[in-house]
């Protein structure tokens, strides 16, 4: 996704990666809705709110916060099943999301270090 966004120019706007992170943060809440459990939805929405707060800081002040949010979300994926019971999460999702989050965090970090994308 990041490579495609760079090739076609979607990530020239600093809002691109924060928008991606907002979508990523919402998936577990979506899975809670699909699983039909209000308790999981409440917990997932609370966690998503924390990721959203860091992402907004990233958009407003420094995209390094978005790198941190992506990396932290990847770590969250590792422990998600042990921390939150959400029957709507596909079995393969945490591993997929961990991989995407880690690659996206690394890719954005490289772009920031190379000054391809503006930090602020």
Q: Unreliable runs, pLDDT <50, ≥5 residues?
A: none
Question: Outline, from the CA principal axes?
Answer: elongated
What gap, in angstroms, lies between the N and C termini? 22 Å
| Number of separate helices | 5
Order of helices and strands: HHHHH
Instruction: Please tell me the overall pLDDT.
Output: 94
- Got a strand count? 0
What's the oligomerization state? single chain
Approximately how much beta-strand content do the residues carry?
Answer: under 5%
Quick rundown:
By secondary structure, the chain is mainly alpha-helical.
Overall description:
By secondary structure, the chain is mainly alpha-helical. It has 5 helices and no strands. It has helices at residues 2-8, 16-35, 38-60, 64-83, 93-113. Helix 2 runs antiparallel to helix 3 (38-60). The longest helix is centred in the middle third of the chain and has 23 residues, at 38-60. The mean pLDDT is 94.
Fill in the keyword field for this structure.
120 residues, mainly alpha
Strand-helix topology:
Layout: H1 2-8, H2 16-35, H3 38-60, H4 64-83, H5 93-113
Helix pairs in contact: 2-3, 2-4, 3-4, 4-5
């Amino acid at each position: 996704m990041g490579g495609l966004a760079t090739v076609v120019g979607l990530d020239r706007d600093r809002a691109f990666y924060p928008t991606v992170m907002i979508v990523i943060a919402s998936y577990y809440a979506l899975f809670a809705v699909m699983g039909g459990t209000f308790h999981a939805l409440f917990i997932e929405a609370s966690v998503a709110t924390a990721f959203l707060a860091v992402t907004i800081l990233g958009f407003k002040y420094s995209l390094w916060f978005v790198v941190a949010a992506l990396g932290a979300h990847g770590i969250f994926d590792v422990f998600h099943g042990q921390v939150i019971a959400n029957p709507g999460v596909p079995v393969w999702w945490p591993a997929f999301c961990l991989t995407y989050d880690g690659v996206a965090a690394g890719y954005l970090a490289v772009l920031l270090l190379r000054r391809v994308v503006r930090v602020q």
